[in-house]
Structure formats: C-alpha cells, structure tokens
C-alpha cells in the first residue's frame, strides 16, 4: 500500500460518504400492505428506526443483518422526543449507514416527517419519502366500504385530534360539513371535546359514526354508533390507540330534528 | 367415468361457484408503489379489468395467463359507463373466474367503489377491497414534503372538483380553512370556478399552490405558484389529467392585504 492510498483510506474512514435516509411508510399494520418499494428499502437497510405502531411482521421482512432500533413514540411519551429521533437518524447516516426511518401508516400524514426531513437536510443528507397506506384507507377497506361515495360524500377529511402541546384544540367545526367523510386520527382521548364542538356548530347528532381500532391487524375491531352516542360508546368500549373515528355526513342527510337533538343532549 | 361423476361434472359446469371479486388499488403509477397484497391478487387473477390511468408496468406484474380487459374510463367518456363495468365484472365472477378490478390510486378514494360493491353484493358475490397509495400521497412524497405539518397544517382535505353530472359545483369554500392542506383531484378543468369560489370566501390569494401531474411516473412534473396566479398558470401550462392541485393554508399564514388582493383581482 502506497502512502497516498493509505492517506486516502484514512480520509475515507474519518469522513465516510453519508448514507441515504428513507422515511418509509410501514402501512397500517398488516405486513402485506407494505409497498414493493418499502420492502426494497427494508431489505437494503443497515439500520431501521421504528415506532411503537409498526407491526413486528413488517420488521421480519427486513434484511436480517439490519440493526433494528425501537424509538418508541407513544402518544405523550417523552423518552424518545422528536429531537432525539432526528439526532440519531442523522448520526447514523453520517456514519455512512443506509438508514430507514420506518413510520406506521404514511410518513406524510400525521407522521412528523417535516421535522426529520429538515434535520437531515440541514446535515446535507439526501432523503427519500416512500408513501404508505394510511390507517383510514385500510380501515375502510376492511369494512368493505369506500371512503368517498359519489354524489353523497365527495370529500375526505383526515384530521388529528391531538395537536402540538400548548396549541389550542383544533377547530372541530371546520372538520365536517355536508358531503364529507371525516376520518379522525388520535381522537380517543378527545371525544368529549370533539363531540361537543361539533354539536355547538350545529352538526346533526344522528350522523353515523364508525370506530375502527388496529385496522388491518388480527386485533382489528369496529363499532357503529351515532355522533350523539359516541362519547358514551367510547368510554364504555375501551378503544385503544390507534383508532380511527369515521363520521359520514352525506349531502342527502336531513337532521332528524328535536328528538335527536334531545338524544344528543342526554349524552 | 361413472354416471354419477358425469352428472356431478355437468352440474358443476352449469352453475359454477362464483369467483371472488377484488377491488384492487393500483397505486398512483409507479409499479413499485403497489402493495404486496395487490401483487398477490394480480398474480392469482383469471381476469383483470383496468382503467385508463393504470400504468402498463403494473399490468406486467400480473399473472401472464390472466385476461386483461381495458374498461377505459376517461373523464366524461361514456363508452364504458359505470353500469356496464358493474355488469361485466359481475358476469365474469358468476362464470367462476377470479376477478380483479384494478383501479388507479386507492379504490376507496374517488374510485366509485360503492357502485361496484353494490352490484357484486346484489349478485351474492364476495368482494375484497385492497387499498392503494392515493395520488396525493405519492405526489407529496415525490416533492420531498409531508402532506401535514405539525402545528401548521393539522388536517388534510382530499376533494374532487368533478362531481356527478347535473350536481351543483362543490362547496369550494368549505374545502379550505386555516391549518389545512387541500389536495384537489380532477380539478384541471375547474380551476377558474374553484379559484373564484375560494376568493369569494375570503381565502388569501397569496397561498402557495403546487400542481403535480402524473405523480410517481416518468412523466411527473410539478409547478409552484400562488392561488391568485393558478388560473393563468393552469391555462398556460397544459397540465393533463390526472393532476393534483395542492393548496397549503398554514395556521401561521397572515394575508398580505391589499396588494395581494389586487394581484388576485388582476388574474
């Protein structure tokens, strides 16, 4: 080995080429709802940082030699704050490793992808985003229904009930108008405020509500109720996170008037 | 062959067990954005009924012996009205064939899945829905952006500009409020009405607009503009269907006042 090539090797060791980062959607749970592109990333990764909600069956499809690091973000948990996750994925890439940041559902939908994108770009690292099947889509498919229905619900609203700590509650009333299917994410703990907000806005309390937990997994369960009864059903049912709450307000819906208003009030 | 077994065979021929129907999401275009489940259905199908927007690369992943039938639904085309599509998929299943109805994107999002589900169920045929990556999700991933951004856009509205023939125009104003990313599907021909409706509703005309055509395919292109300039850009640009029009109204956005209002009026 010549002195020059030794120097080159040392220089390479000292500052390896940064590895790429891919923010990969793991889909809603069922491993076969992964995309082919996501599978390829998992099979080429050196290290995979994954969330609490990623199904173990998805991880089993990854390259056996890949290191798998749990960055367990429970709702409200602070052991893996976002800044720490940003730091570890960037550090791994700077060591030249091919990094997969595996996020349940679609990284672009309530996945806090922007924070990880900005951290990676600030470090000069290229990032790919691989979209995934979001839970609302899988949940409705499991129910054998369409999220939109032509002439009845021509729009689909995906909203989260859980905003940034310190932020005011979301504008509940703005989530739902006639002709809309609302899929509310992370709403289990916010049902009382959410239902009250919709009632104040004059949303009919007899609208059909469907709650789906753990969509596409073996633990999936669903319940159909009305908006008026939703808080009571939720309290009784012990629905875990992640659950999706669907509310369908068809263009043809006519409020059933005073009787249902009373039912709404009784809850 | 015994007379009994001959009779059995004849009986089987006369009324075969109906085949299953799967409404399968083909994803936005790129073949590797297909899910593993969708791939399995394509590889087990006897017959595949597919739309204009399904990429040929997706069809090449199907079982070679599967019959592929184009049921080319262009926007506004009437050669394959929905009722005819319903009839042919049901007839194929009743002949005992395993039917895949391959729909671009996600069958549950603007896919008219309900009409096909109802036709199949009326004939007593079981239907599976296999969710797919919808175009908005793929388009935003291609741009390297998130559809929602925590603390800025906490909700995502997917809306279509093209409703049932004879229906009034959609409630444009209800599509967009602060804190929302709007992804408008099938909007290319409706941009003038849409922009005017938002302006009447007081939506700031300086909001950022991104148009993405043919997301995830080799022909993908995107343009960034403002809501005020959108009609002119659209008219000049010749954006084909399918294009997604994204409008982002962050919670932090402050209308830039009179000057931008004038710009809005000038278009």
Automatic annotation (TrEMBL), chains A, B:
Coiled coil: none annotated. GO terms for biological process: methylation; siroheme biosynthetic process. Keywords: Methyltransferase, Porphyrin biosynthesis, S-adenosyl-L-methionine, Transferase. Pfam families: TP_methylase. The keyword Ubl conjugation does not apply. CDD domains: SUMT (cd11642). GO terms for molecular function: uroporphyrin-III C-methyltransferase activity. Its EC number is 2.1.1.107. Residues 21-230 form the Tetrapyrrole methylase domain. SUPFAM superfamilies: Tetrapyrrole methylase (SSF53790). Belongs to the precorrin methyltransferase family. This is uroporphyrinogen-III C-methyltransferase. It comes from Frigidibacter mobilis.
């Amino acid at each position: 080995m010549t002195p020059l090539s030794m120097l080159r090797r040392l220089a390479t060791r000292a500052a390896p080429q940064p590895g790429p980062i891919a923010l990969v959607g793991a889909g809603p749970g069922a491993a076969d709802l992964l995309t082919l592109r996501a599978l390829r990333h998992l099979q080429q990764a050196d290290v995979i940082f994954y969330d609490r909600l990623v199904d173990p069956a998805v991880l089993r499809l990854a390259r056996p030699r890949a290191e798998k690091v749990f960055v367990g973000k429970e709702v409200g948990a602070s052991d893996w704050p976002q800044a720490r996750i940003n730091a570890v994925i960037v550090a791994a890439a700077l060591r030249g490793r091919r990094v997969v940041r595996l996020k349940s559902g679609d990284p672009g939908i309530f996945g806090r992808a922007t924070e990880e994108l900005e951290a990676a770009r600030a470090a000069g690292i290229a990032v790919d985003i691989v979209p995934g099947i979001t839970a609302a889509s899988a949940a409705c498919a499991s129910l054998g229904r369409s999220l939109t229905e032509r002439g009845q619900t021509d729009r689909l609203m995906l909203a989260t009930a859980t905003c940034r700590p310190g932020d005011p509650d979301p504008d509940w009333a703005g989530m739902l108008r006639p002709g809309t299917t609302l899929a509310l994410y992370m709403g289990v703990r916010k049902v009382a405020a959410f239902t009250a907000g919709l009632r104040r806005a004059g949303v009919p309390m007899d609208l059909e509500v469907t709650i789906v937990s753990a969509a596409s997994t073996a633990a999936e369960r669903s319940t159909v109720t009305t908006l008026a009864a939703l808080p009571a059903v939720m309290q009784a049912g012990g629905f875990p996170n992640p659950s999706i709450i669907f509310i369908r307000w068809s263009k043809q819906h006519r409020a059933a008037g005073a009787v249902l208003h009373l039912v709404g009030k009784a809850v």
